Each structure stands twice: as C-alpha cells, then as structure tokens.
Amino acid sequence: MQARILAALLNEIRPRWAVGSMLKILEKQHQHPAKFADIALAALTAARDPSVETPGLFFNDTRFWPDDVKAKLPKPPDCADHIGQDMYTCRSCKADVLCGDRPENMIGRHYEPPPSIYDQLTESLEAVPTGAAFPLEETP
Ligand SMILES: [Zn+2]
Known about the structure:
By secondary structure, this protein is mainly alpha-helical. The chain folds into two domains: 2-70; 75-125, no CATH class. It contains six helices and no strands. Bound molecules: zinc ion.
C-alpha cells in the first residue's frame, strides 16, 4: 500500500516515472533498512531535482537522504574505474565528465575512451615502414 501511494505521488511529480516501473523499483528495495518516511522523503527530493532522470537513483545516491539516515544506508557499490569511490557519486568520474573525457551517463561505470586523434595518427604513422614515405636517394 505504501509503495503504491509513493509510486502514484512520484508519477504526479514526474509523469515519465511510470507507476508500474516505480512499483518494481520499490519492490526490489522492500528490505531497505530505512523507514518509509525517510524513503518517501528521499524519493520526493530526487523527483524535485530536474537533473535526476533515473527514477531509482535516490536509493543509491546519498544526496537525497536526510542527514541522520545517511550513515545507516547500505554502502553503494564501488565505481568500476575508481576503487574506493561510490559508484553513483564518483568524484573522479565527475572530473572526467567536466574535462570532456567521459560521457555523463558513464559515471561509476567502466569507460574506455575512444582513441584520440593523436593516438590514431601515431598508430597510422607507426604502420608505415621506415623510409617508405620519402625514400632517400643517394647523391652521386
Ligand atoms: Zn569513477
């Protein structure tokens, strides 16, 4: 019953967060240690943030939780690329995003950047046999 009410409320605030999907997300977390009031507060805080697109993000992102509950939350998984950083709030990944080295949707996930133009040029030059481009002719 609580999940249905919360799902309906979130859907009112965020029409793209369908009631059915919200229910699935909430059901997966039915053993979450936080009280319903705290879960509801975190969910609503996330729904109010226009930068949040993933409906279930609030379960793992501590930004949305009341301070006294944060410490009791289960620890989120580590970032795939940066050990010791939380997957959802990895500062190293966010720095990569700011530099343009990582897409924003790859925070906390393993990301293999495409080879740079420098790397591509170096690689293609290395493929050319030495001296093939400008063969030196010996002067008589
Ligand atoms: Zn990271």
